[in-house]
Amino acid sequence: MTDIRMTKTEAMTPHDRILTAMRLGMPDRVPVMPDISNMVPARLTGKPFWDIYFHNDPPLDEAYLSAVDYYGMDGWYIYDNATMFEQPAWSQKIIGRNEEELRVERWIDTPFGRLSEITVYPVADSPWPAEGMIKDIAADFPKLQWYMQQRSYESLFKNRNKVGDRGIFGVAIETFMGFWIWARHGGSMQAIFDLSEEPDRMQQVHEFYLSFAREAAQQILVHRPDEILLAGSSSSLSLSSPRIYKQFDLPIIKDVSAACKEAGVICHQHTCGKSRLIVEINYAETDVNVMEPLERPPGGDVDLAEVKRRFGDKFCLKGNVNTFETMINGSVQDVENEAKACIAAAAEGGGFILATGDQCGRDTPDENIFALVEVAKTHGTYS
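Now predict its structure.
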């Protein structure tokens, strides 16, 4: 494996620039990877969002790569998720339609009965679940177990060549809370209730998912992606608690990050909202390489300079320009000022990627995204 933890002065490809920073090195400049993974690329197509999310016209990953080219940014391909990957394929039919949304029933038949959900596809927003897969844990969880044990991880890599040198190719594994909120009817609140109301069943669910994540990581690492992304939005301490994080999420994070370390592959965790304590826990107990998006108040609780000072010797830090105060509602000058402040706070010595504090909203002005990218190109030097 090529060692790219070094200082580069000549121009680099986005792929090498990102990986150099992720390995705590100093590339030619600070990489810039605003999180525009969903709504902004869909908006740029000019189509109803259900064309992208339901009809795959174009697929979301291709819309994202077009946006990477449009904004001239460094690319972060995260559209292949081992937890949520649909294999075998689901059947689906439109059961409701109006000017504002499509309502779609989706199902797969298993040896334990039918697993089903209802998803709503708005005309100008991301899809959301009206009815989750797991309505009754005892009746439905065996169906989900069977389904998740059928997949072949090799097929997760069919889109790898789409990215090229425009960015890095990652495969995601959900943290435990991300997995359970994805599956559970009632979403995040019901998932939290389950932990206290059905502790024995939830222990069985956790044991299954821990085994699943271990096996998924091993199978993925055979194919050597640029990174494994631990998709941990639902593990945020804005929603969860330190006890839940340590009991349910941390064992999976420890196992997956240890496997990545052994294979020499980056392990990258996304946990938005309040995450300062999570950074500290991960620093002490895991082999995670990259932490993001490190949201500042009011949405989060991270002081970027403080985190750099205390944890920058282990973590590449990715963040943290505010998405709603600055990116959506701020001026170009506001974006430039905050982006420069982030570089000043965290770029020294390497190991920093300029990005947004979580997902850019649909209505983020193009000029603000262009401004963020331009700051990295003109002021993204390492001191």
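The first strand starts at residue 75 and ends at 81.
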